[in-house]
Amino acid sequence: MVRTGSPSGDGISPSGRGMWLRRVEHRTFDGDSALATHPTLRPYLADLAGPHGLVLREEVFDAGAGQAYAELGRPLVEAVTTAEEPVDLLVLAYGVHDVQPGRNVALHLSDRCPGRPLAFAVCDQGPAAAFTALRLIADYPAPGACVRALLLVAEQTAVHYPLATPAPVPDRHAAVALLLESAADAPAALVRQHTGVSAEAAGALLAADIIELSGGRSDVTLVVGDGVPVEPGTAVAEVLRAPAGLPYTGVWSRLCAGDQPDRLAVLADHDPALGYLSVAAVALGPRTVGASPTTGADMGGGVATMILEKP
To answer: Check: CATH 3.40.50 for 19-186+293-308?
Structure first.
């Protein structure tokens, strides 16, 4: 485990490796995991909450509420990867604790991913965690050794203790998987993260970032978190808003929407509690899109899929 401070770098990620976003899968899941009633969960969380003077919420344990990120992630890994395309790097991002704390989920999912990639997780940064994960993927220090990378973002609804400070809590279990592939002719995947940003300042700062990250392109789809301000006249072709109630996967889930080829997607989210503004630019190559509101075969819930064909 590595502990860091706030996401630093009011500048663009230094390398910004050229990457196409090849596939996206987003699912919401009905029901709770049997692991939410595992006897080790209560003492583990009690040990974590006790030093902060927090008392566990017995009603959450009594309800057996919560999901395991390994169970959310496995069907998504299967959906976006193939045996013929091994993955070199897997990064998991989340903001709410897992209900199976004894499992290293990133390594568990790596073992079930073609290529058995190097894997780690980013957490405790709120909605900024997924942007930090993308930044680490784009700045991976050995580009030749990382042709494909998989970004997994997961969230579950059960918080078993009172929050010491304000933080967004999902109202549905959900996960999203993004398969990225390096290519010399792909636009750079760029991430910009700011700290100490108020809600009033977020809109103007976002507009400036869009101009810089888009490189003058006019075919920009802006995807913003629920409640993120968008300044009038912001230079984008369309604006998509993340669905309410999915504070960690919502922005990324909207990459499944739309049917414009060769889009440049700029994603942005703001956490007013932590003051983080995160902005990322990702290139979407020519693709076919299939979206389905049907129930997922694994655990129930909605399914949306985007398949990106190589240019």
So the answer is: no
